[in-house]
Design brief:
heterotrimer; A mainly alpha; B mainly alpha; C alpha/beta; B: mainly alpha; Cytochrome Bc1 Complex, Chain D, domain 2; two-stranded antiparallel ribbon; 20 helices; 45% helix; globular; C: seven-stranded mixed beta sheet; six-stranded antiparallel beta sheet; 11 helices
């Protein structure tokens, strides 16, 4: 992580966004940071890129941010580093990097994805459940499946062809 | 060949027995279902029509009687005339009065032909049960059955049903089913201080002490004027309207045991009539209806910061009704659910206490043993505020009453102290009759 | 002594076997006292704990844990309660709470096959039971009525009376398996203690797909309900009471049981009859702990077989993608099985097994897999949806033969109350490995018939177990090679009974609960002088 600056000023962030915009949509099909608003946080930007969603629930985002900070005092710094990585990687490169078990930035990205898709921040004894029913993995299949423990339907409703 | 032969012999022997069920008996069987005789006259797990079901009334428990053709214990010794009098006038063969838990004021409208068919069915097709359930023991003065003579004088309208020439045959058939057989008014029409139906507010809704029988007049707000005919038919046939209403409690039992078994023609007729019941606007909820379901509480639930109502909902309701209250795949959605739009929260709380147990289809478990009165009140109020009419609330004391089977009727105190004129009238009539009965009894002895 | 309690019968352990035996005795007028090491729990608390747990896949996580009545827990790390001597680790999960381990189970409530009771006579392997299927048949039915069991009639176990309800409606996945695997494999609906209609004040299943770790609506039977039923019948239940020593008189009759409450205050309970109904690990532990001058190797151990012949169901599995959308996760978790390899002459050569299809939602595990593989954004969601619709898992439930070297003992290491922890010696023989090979062949054929792609076998030689802990208290006709007699009574102690799957001499190919309950009900009849 030595190559990632500890400080990551707002000024520099704006500069990066400008560069990303110049890079064009062919290189970054999702746009690196779509819908970036003033006061946008690193976690919001990183989350939008990683989920491909620009309608993320702000309360969920705040809960995740809170949980990650509680688990890891260096979270903010590592997040800024990850943001820089996302800025410069296109989807194919990012996919390859995120599969690297040893890469620290990738590990943080996977943690954030786990936070959004499974509602869990952190791992082992530090793990915190931030969301359950609202976790995005459930949203992806909501037309067919319910989060476990929630009823599929009245008795026998599961016999019908799902779709 | 031998087994075949004996099988054939068996079939031959059985054939006449089967064929013996005349058209009249078959009609009686259908009428017994339509009039829901078995609902009260059969105890849970008991023999059909052998009685023994304790029926909670505001005056105390009334135990249904044996109406099988047993000579000693049932109505085997009744002539058609005696049966007819019991059914339509509330007087037993021995001259004693029935309590109007038996809906004889409704059955009074039944035609002679239907009474004869019902009589034929009960005498010929029902197995006699040689046993009597325990007797009904009401508090004084209602323990004296003759008290009902005065009541009948005041309130029993024993006119037979006569078709209204201003309406078509279907409407009139529906009116007959509703009045004479299904006895809708027994529960849905408010009663006066002496427990008689108040005809000026027919079907405008009434509390049964615990469950609330809502307004089923054609009023679009207070009643069912906003329901489609199809929704009403589905509701009466299955207990689910498909449009946000589902039956529970005694109505579910009436659907399971009786209304759900009406012929399609009779169901159509009943719905035709029901949708034409004159509107009565009383019994409307305040109208502070939630516009949208509450926002997801998932994050607060995980953090342990959800309000108590939301936490109780998550622990006990969301499992089936879903975190959003949307239900689905046959489970009822909660937003604007009929149970949360009534003018009282009693039914919602009763459904939680007792559960909802249809004969067929998905049941809802009971939570009486899981939540205390305060929790049920909190949860009920949260449900009304979030999904129904925020103007309707209840407190833990009311839940305690519901749990105990309802508040006792003020009528008991009224009649005992004799402060009310009506109570005094009853007492006078009753005392006179009691004296007369006593003398008659002595003469017999 | 103010601290001595007394009853006609003391039951140690409030799980499904102990509670239903206690209930039966109490209903016949006995005063019954039931001790439970763990605490009382409430269903809604466990449901809440599951939903808020960061480890949704850990069946133990939602349940309360106390070092005073520890249970094994392997997540995030092994808590070190069960110690291993090898060569193969034995790592069962169980709960120490009122109601016991069936708080989480798939509710599979199979009867044994008649031949399972005499595999030594028929196939020359394992051992015969001292009783036959017919001896147990009425008790199977008694258990099925109490537990609300349903299943198909053609499940291989003949029955004198019908199930109390219809089999549970098949999921779409199950229907596709039935259609596509026929006629080569007959797939049948599982026999389960799961409501297909309202039964005994409990609703029909709503397909919450959470049988493990907790059915949120009590649509499936569990030991908590059994404990409730026992208390309703008049049984006195003392939770947080950790039995640690039995006492006996000169004749060997058991006279008292001593327990610690959670303040580590010792109490003593006397009774005429004692029933040990902790599980097949904790009962041998208690009997070892009760060693005396007269019984230096532990009570009920004159044969030297106490704690030996430990069996479970080792499982291997196959996971693959079906060539059509079948959407596991709708309906109960364990819906259907293949029967045909449960019995046959091959049992003289290799282990028989039942093939069990999982219908658990795979959303969580697939999401984890995809994130690990670097997926993100729209591609992650697309792939998650596609795989969730098609990925299925199939496992076997395979019979391990009794082996005296597979055993539970006492470790030197002690728990928080100062009681030695359980220690295991465990391994698998070639009978198991050959059965696994036969199973792999069947798995591959099943995958082929379902158009399977991306086929993944569980690691060769590494088997998961099924927490069907059996054999450590084996019943037998000969006191020289068994712990208990044909009614579950200790050969060495005339008033000591075991209500536990531990008395089962062989583990067969189906979940052990129903047989354990049937045996416990039969033991209760023996105590009542009816057997």
């Amino acid at each position: 992580m030595n190559d990632i600056p500890v400080e990551f000023s707002p000024h520099r962030r704006r500069l990066m966004q400008g560069l990303a915009a110049l890079a064009g949509s062919a290189l970054l099909p999702f746009g690196a940071f779509p819908a970036a608003a003033s006061g946008d946080t690193d976690l919001a930007a990183v989350s939008r890129r990683l989920t491909g969603r620009d309608d993320l629930n702000p309360a969920y985002l705040a809960a995740l941010d809170n949980a990650f900070r509680g688990i890891d005092a260096g979270f903010a710094d590592r997040l800024a580093g990850l943001r820089a990585v996302l800025d410069t990687a296109d989807d194919a490169a990012l996919r390859a990097r995120l599969a690297d078990a040893e890469d620290e930035a990738a590990a943080l990205a996977r943690d954030i994805l786990t936070g959004w898709y499974l509602g869990v921040a952190g791992s082992g004894d530090d793990a915190v459940c931030v969301a359950y029913a609202d976790a995005l993995s459930h949203a992806v299949v909501a037309d067919v499946l319910r989060p476990r423990s929630y009823a599929y339907g009245a008795y026998g409703s599961w016999s019908a062809k799902p779709l | 060949m031998k087994p075949l032969l004996s099988l054939a012999a068996l079939l031959l022997a059985a054939a006449p027995a089967l064929a013996q069920e005349s058209a009249q008996v078959a009609r009686g069987r259908y009428l017994a279902t339509a009039a829901d005789c078995g609902a009260c006259h059969t105890a849970p797990g008991g023999q059909p029509f052998a009685g023994g079901l304790p029926i909670g009334t505001p005056l105390g428990e009334i135990v249904s009687t044996n109406i099988t053709p047993s000579q000693a214990h049932g109505i085997g010794g009744y002539s058609l005339e005696q049966f007819s009098r019991a059914l339509r006038e509330g007087v037993r063969a021995d001259g004693a009065n029935l309590y109007p838990a038996m809906p004889y004021p409704s059955y009074a409208a039944m035609t002679d032909e239907d009474v004869a068919a019902l009589y034929a069915y009960l005498q010929e097709a029902v197995d006699p049960v040689e046993d009597s359930p325990p007797p009904t023991e009401l508090p004084f003065p209602f323990s004296v059955r003759a008290s009902m003579t005065g009541w009948n004088l005041l309130f029993l309208d024993d006119d037979r049903f006569t078709p209204d020439p201003g309406h078509d045959a279907a409407w009139n058939r529906g009116a007959y089913i509703a009045r004479a057989l299904a006895h809708c008014s027994t529960c849905h029409t408010p009663r006066n201080a002496l427990m008689a139906e108040d005809g000026t507010r027919a079907l405008a809704g009434a509390s049964l002490g615990t469950w609330y029988a809502p307004n089923i007049t054609s009023d679009p707000v207070a009643g069912i004027g906003g329901w489609s005919a199809e929704a009403l038919k589905r509701y009466l046939a299955t207990g689910h309207s498909g449009e946000g209403a589902q039956a529970a409690g005694p109505m579910l039992e009436a659907i399971d045991k009786s209304l759900g078994k009406l012929t399609p023609g009779d169901m159509d007729a009943l719905v035709t009539w029901l949708r034409d019941v004159p509107p009565v606007s009383e019994g409307a909820a305040p109208g502070r209806v939630a516009q949208a379901a509450p926002a997801s509480a998932d994050l607060a639930l995980m953090a342990g910061t959800a309000p108590e109502g939301a936490q109780l909902y998550a622990d006990h309701c969301a499992t089936c009704h879903q975190p959003t209250g949307a239900g689905g795949n046959g489970l009822p959605p909660l937003l604007h659910n009929a149970a949360l739009l009534h003018p009282t929260a009693d039914n919602a709380a009763m459904a939680m206490l007792d559960g909802v147990w249809p004969e067929h289809g998905q049941s809802m478990p009971a939570f009486a043993g899981v939540m205390d009165d305060a929790e049920i009140a909190t949860l009920t109020n949260w449900l009304f505020a979030g999904f129904g009419d925020a103007g309707v609330q209840l407190d833990a004391a009311r839940v305690a009453e519901l749990r105990a089977g309802g508040a006792p009727s003020p009528l008991i105190g009224l009649a005992r102290t004799g402060v009310a004129v009506a109570g005094a009238v009853i007492l006078l009539v009753l005392l006179g009759l009691a004296f007369w009965l006593l003398r008659r009894g002595r003469r017999r002895a | 002594m103010a601290d001595t309690l007394s009853a006609d019968v003391v039951v140690v352990g409030s799980g499904i076997c102990g509670s239903l035996a206690a209930r039966k005795l109490a209903r016949e007028g006995a005063s019954v006292l039931m001790l439970e090491a763990g605490p009382r729990i409430r269903r809604d608390d466990i449901v809440r704990a599951f939903r808020t747990s960061p480890r949704k896949g850990d069946l133990i996580a939602p349940y309360p844990y106390s070092s005073l009545a520890p249970h094994p827990d392997y997540h995030p790390e092994d808590n070190g309660y069960l110690l291993q001597q090898g060569p193969y680790p034995y790592k069962p999960e169980y709960l120490r709470v009122v109601g016991g381990t069936t708080w989480h189970w798939a509710a599979q409530a199979w009867r044994y096959l008649p031949n399972d009771f005499r595999i030594r006579s028929l196939y020359g392997v394992g051992r015969d039971w001292p009783i036959s299927y017919d001896d147990l048949e009425p008790y199977y039915h008694e258990a099925e009525v109490l537990m609300g069991v349903s299943g198909p009639v053609n499940n291989g176990s003949p029955r004198a009376k019908p199930f109390p309800m219809e089999p549970v409606a098949p999921s779409y996945l199950e229907q596709r398996l039935m259609t596509r695997l026929a006629p080569e494999f007959e797939v049948i609906t599982n026999t389960t203690a799961r409501n297909s209609r309202a039964y005994d004040g409990r609703p029909a299943c709503c397909g919450n797909n959470n049988c493990m770790p907790i059915c949120p609506i009590d649509a499936q039977y569990h030991g908590g309900l059994a404990a409730d039923a026992a208390e309703a019948a008049g049984v006195t239940l003392i939770p947080q009471a950790v039995a640690y020593k039995l006492e006996h008189d000169e004749s060997g009759r058991i006279t008292a049981v001593n327990y610690y409450d959670w303040d580590k205050v010792s109490h003593r309970v006397t009774a005429e009859t004692f029933i040990l109904a902790a599980n097949a690990i904790e009962i041998p532990r208690l009997l070892f702990l009760s060693a005396s001058d007269r019984f230096p190797d532990g009570l009920a151990n004159s044969s030297g077989t106490l704690g030996r012949n430990l069996m479970d169901h080792p499982s291997s599995s196959i996971t693959f993608n079906v060539d059509e959308d079948v959407w596991p996760g709708r309906g109960p978790q364990s819906p259907a099985s293949i029967q045909k390899l449960r019995d046959g002459d091959f049992r003289s050569e290799h282990a028989p097994f039942r093939i069990d299809f999982s219908n658990s939602s795979r959303v969580t595990s697939i999401t984890e897999d995809l994130i690990k593989a670097g997926y993100f954004g729209a591609a992650l969601e697309r792939e998650l949806r596609a795989r969730t619709a098609r990925e299925i898992s199939v496992k076997n439930v395979l019979e391990q033969l009794p082996d005296p070297d597979n055993r539970v003992m006492l470790a030197d290491e002690k728990d928080a109350l100062g009681l030695p922890k359980p220690l295991f010696s465990y391994s698998f023989d070639d009978y198991v490995h050959r059965g696994m090979a036969a199973s792999r062949t069947a798995f591959e054929r099943i995958a082929e018939l379902m158009g399977g792609t991306d086929i993944r076998h569980s690691p060769e030689g590494k088997y998961s177990n099924n927490q069907h802990i059996t054999g450590t208290l084996s019943m037998g006709a000969d006191p020289a090679d068994s712990v208990t007699d044909a009614v579950g009574r200790a050969h060495d102690h005339e008033n000591l009974y075991m209500a536990s799957t531990g008395v089962m001499p062989t583990v067969a190919t189906c979940n052990s609960t129903l047989t354990g309950v049937a045996l416990a009900l039969r033991s209760a009849d023996a105590i009542l002088g009816r057997v």
